[in-house]
Amino acid sequence: MFTIERLSAIEILDSRGRPTVKAACLLTSGDVGVASVPSGASTGTAEALELRDGDPNRYRGLGCRKAVAHVNVEINRALAGRTFASQEELDRSLVTLDGTPSKARLGANAILAVSLAFARAAASSRRLPLFEHLNSLLPEPRPRPRLPRPTINLFSGGKHAGGQVPIQDVLVVPVSARTMDEALAMTYAVYQAAADLTRERYGMRALTADEGGLAPPFPSAEAMLEDAVTAIVAADLRPGHDIALAVDVASSHFHRAGVYHLGKARFDSRGMIKLLLAWEERYPILSYEDGLAEEDWAHWPDLAAALGDQTRTLGDDFLCTNPERIRRAVAAKAANALLLKVNQIGTLTEAAEAYRLARAAGWSVTVSARSGETEDDWLADLATGWAGDYIKIGSITQSERLAKYNRLLEIEAETGLDMSVER
Fold first, then answer.
1. How far apart are CA 423 and CA 418, in angstroms?
2. Which of 28, 303, 364, 399 is 20 to 30 A from 319 in CA distance terms?
3. Which residues are annotated as catalytic?
4. Is the dihedral of CA 374, 380, 382, 388 positive or negative?
5. Is the pTM of this model over 0.90?
């Protein structure tokens, strides 16, 4: 049982210099939990709503003072002094208090900050590492905690960079690594080789995008993929054996009126599927994220069938960590993998339900950060506690990314937990 004494929040800045919410939960036991929430740039239309102030004279309307005030006043008044038996009871109270389907009244940023801060305080009260406490939030039978395999941003385009190519990210996956330490060392070698290539081929220094990926002026998406393979080889690693690729296509952002605008090329849905299959044959790709637009429901089953079980048909904007959309996708056989972003749905309890549905369908799960992150490292504990197959944090630069990687290294050193097996 956990009794809340006080909830509070302040506005802080994320990795893009935009405001976000940091909340604190004080229990009557004296235990405190503090948590910061991220923010996305590439967002799905079905995501829970981040509440922004809308004042054009302050942070161009992106301020979060309203969300912060909701934590300090209304949410605190409603929940302070109350005893909660579980995370689910707390989260259901938050959802009921908001009273809207998308958390638009109080703001998903306010609600999630409280949900996470409460979880941290509860873990402290139980004298458990956060990952062990988060594991206990899952329904039985619970998975054994394990380290997720990282998928690490190498090159960026789309909304995470300057839009020089439509696809959003090419990530490296250290498939032969046995430990997190080995995975990060392998990735460092590839990243440095890619930085050298960027300088030699494009005549520019290693400027990075929102998530730390390199962002030279690629002439095409194919060039982006070719350069990734070249960097792997230059690092004395074997493409497809030591390092595979994952591609965040983010198709919704170049899909208009039923047509996919990929550079100068134009494709209908079937043409887009053929293109992704051609890339898969040519490059060591194990995962496509949002290979089709988020509302192209008629063709997602075709994409999943064409890629088969060996390639992840991964839903981000398509699924939005939303249980209703996941149920629909499972019934339609429209995907075989979930990109789990807690702030897309707004509470840990709802995210756990999304996780449960994905696992029940036999899907893999990638626990993901956002493009606008903070130095908070709770995501590493979540991915470990929920035994995520993969974790998507960003590149191996920038403190908001490294905080999560360093937490994974810390967990590995303290526990000796195994890394998820590549499958």
1. 15
2. 399
3. 211, 341
4. positive
5. yes
